[in-house]
Amino acid sequence: MFSIPGKALREKLLALNGLGPETVDSILLYAGGIPYFVIDAYTRRIFSRHQWLDAKASYDTLQHDFMSQLPLHVQTYNEYHALIVKTAKVYCKKTADCSDCPLRIYPSTL
Ligand code: SF4
């Protein structure tokens, strides 16, 4: 499957029933080592609480915003997304605990 060029493979996977962009990009990034930044609910939550993005923006818009600001690099995308997930699970839950969060130094809406 991963012998198909990344863009063409992404389109093929997105055409399958039940696969949305978050799932497809996770497959491409984590299984295929193909650099597509994954946007998920944690990304929207953290970044919107800091007003770094529009929480209502489309998946493609947000992905473009991230990818246009980052090097096209699998390990960078992998680590960045992992840090977002970790931050959301430990600190930025539905009810945020900002007191010990490493991102508390940046202004947020909370
Ligand atoms: S400082 Fe608060 S709002 Fe910002 S990421 Fe941490 S927990 Fe979330």
Q: Based on CA inertia axes, which overall geometry fits?
A: elongated
Q: What's the average pLDDT?
A: 96
Distance between the termini: 44 Å
Number of domains: 1
According to CATH, the fold-level topology is Endonuclease Iii, domain 2
Strand content: under 5%
The distinct ligands, each listed once, are: iron/sulfur cluster
Radius of gyration from the CA trace? 15 Å
Largest sheet: none
Give me the count of strands.
0
Can you tell me the residue ranges where pLDDT is under 50 for at least 5 consecutive residues?
Answer: none
Level of helix content? 40-55%
Structural class: mainly alpha
Helix count from the secondary structure assignment: 5
Report the CATH architecture: Orthogonal Bundle
CATH class: Mainly Alpha
What would your notes on this structure say?
- The protein contains five helices and no strands.
- The chain has a single domain, classed as Helix-hairpin-Helix base-excision DNA repair enzymes (C-terminal) (Endonuclease Iii, domain 2, Orthogonal Bundle), CATH 1.10.1670.
- Helix 1 runs antiparallel to helix 2.
- With 110 residues, the chain is an all-alpha fold.
- The mean pLDDT is 96.
- The chain binds iron/sulfur cluster (SF4).
- The site of iron/sulfur cluster (SF4) has 14 residues, from helix 3.
- The site of iron/sulfur cluster has 14 residues, from helix 3.
